[in-house]
């Protein structure tokens, strides 16, 4: 059987296992997991009775043709040194490690290699997984991985040089937007008698509804702004303030994050 292995049962590894099995794209006997600690493996076995548990990463690599490595970037080379010697070379390695390039992965493994950037929002079946295949990829391996990740949200194929900035938006973006939601809720609480809990509910609902509106109507954000911001009205004042300040703020935020992204794999 063509099993899929997940090395690293942390935030991302557990989310992927949960998503693939809940969506039904994979069956329980098609998934094998290995992780560093017994605690994580016990949690996996308890959450998914019947799932394959490998005692070592090498054992997982012997059992699986597709291997997703979901460890932190600093740990991926250690994992590759453990698994590559027991692999035939016709397997497919899929790396989640931010900042670790295809060239580094292909230097360690001569078979098919793919970089995948997941998003935490796939836990609720939403959001975009970015996929970037290496030079050795075959059509079947590419389609299999794209199909599996399509079960937990959208999939977008990107070139490697597009990956860093796209990562900031689709994968780090939920964290950025959550920070913005906190600020909106905080400002509303400070300007009103409402509690922070109440304003957080209002802010989250408003952001969810705005995203759904844009997606369902197909309107551009500028169209929506025109609908809400009547000339001389309240929204117009706020939008003007944001348009003056936000481009500079976001350019600085992206520059700082790109610098950190580039340093991740070092
Ligand atoms: N979090 C995100 O939103 C996000 C988004 C995009 C990409 N990523 C990427 O996804 C990867 C995983 O991130 P994460 O947030 O899931 O990190 P995490 O929660 O820290 O999980 C990492 C897991 O790796 C396991 N591990 C460490 N060394 C190992 C080894 N030698 N062999 C087997 N397992 C090992 C740990 O196992 P134990 O629990 O057993 O100790 C841990 O569960 C990273 O490369 C990150 O760049 C994350």
From TrEMBL:
It comes from the Archaea. GO terms for biological process: L-proline biosynthetic process. The keyword Amino-acid biosynthesis applies. One of its GO terms (cellular component) is cytoplasm. GO terms for molecular function: pyrroline-5-carboxylate reductase activity. Residues 160-262 form the Pyrroline-5-carboxylate reductase dimerisation domain. Its EC number is 1.5.1.2. Gene3D superfamilies: NAD(P)-binding Rossmann-like Domain, ProC C-terminal domain-like. InterPro entries: 6-PGluconate_DH-like_C_sf, NAD(P)-bd_dom_sf, P5C_Rdtase_cat_N, P5CR_dimer, Pyrroline-COOH_reductase. It is found in: Cytoplasm. Pathway: Amino-acid biosynthesis; L-proline biosynthesis; L-proline from L-glutamate 5-semialdehyde: step 1/1. Pfam families: F420_oxidored, P5CR_dimer. Residues 4-99 form the Pyrroline-5-carboxylate reductase catalytic N-terminal domain. Keywords: Amino-acid biosynthesis, Cytoplasm, NADP, Oxidoreductase, Proline biosynthesis. It catalyses: L-proline + NADP(+) = (S)-1-pyrroline-5-carboxylate + NADPH + 2 H(+); L-proline + NAD(+) = (S)-1-pyrroline-5-carboxylate + NADH + 2 H(+). NADPH binds at residue 57. Catalyzes the reduction of 1-pyrroline-5-carboxylate (PCA) to L-proline. Belongs to the pyrroline-5-carboxylate reductase family. This is Pyrroline-5-carboxylate reductase.
